[in-house]
Amino acid sequence: MITVLQRVASARVEVAGEVVGAIDQGLLMLVCAEPGDTEALAQRLLSKVLKLRIFEDEAGKMNRSLQDVGGGLLVVSQFTLAADVSGGNRPSFTAAAPPELARALYEHLVALARAQHPLVQTGRFATDMQVHLVNDGPITIPLRMSA
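Given the sequence above, the corresponding C-alpha cells read:
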C-alpha cells in the first residue's frame, strides 16, 4: 500500500460542494492499494500511521504520535499514488489495485481505523473529491508498505 501522510492544522473533503469529511489538527492520509495488498498489510500500515511520532512535544521535538495528541485522521482513497510516468507524459495506473480489491481494502482500513482511533473521517471511494488542507509544518511523509 502506498500512503502519503500530511500533518494538518485542518483538512476537509468535499464532493459536489458538500463536506463529507473534516478534521482539525491531525493527519490527512492519502492511500492507494496495490495488487497483492492484504488486510494484514492494511493493519500494519494503520498501526504505523497511528504511532508515527511526527507531532511536537513540549521541547519542540517531533516525539508525539497522532494518538498522543488526540488528533483526527482523514482517510482518502487516491489511486493516482500508483502513477507511473516512466513511459511518457501520460501516467499509467496499472500498478494500482483493481477497483474491487482497492475498495475492499480501503473499507477494511477505515473500519480498523474507526475501531482503533476515536476521530476518523473519510472521503468517498471512486468519487471526484476536492481535498482542502492546511499543511502543518509543512510535514509530508510518503510511506510504502509491502508484504
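The chain has one domain: 2-135. Try to locate this feature in the C-alpha cell string yourself.
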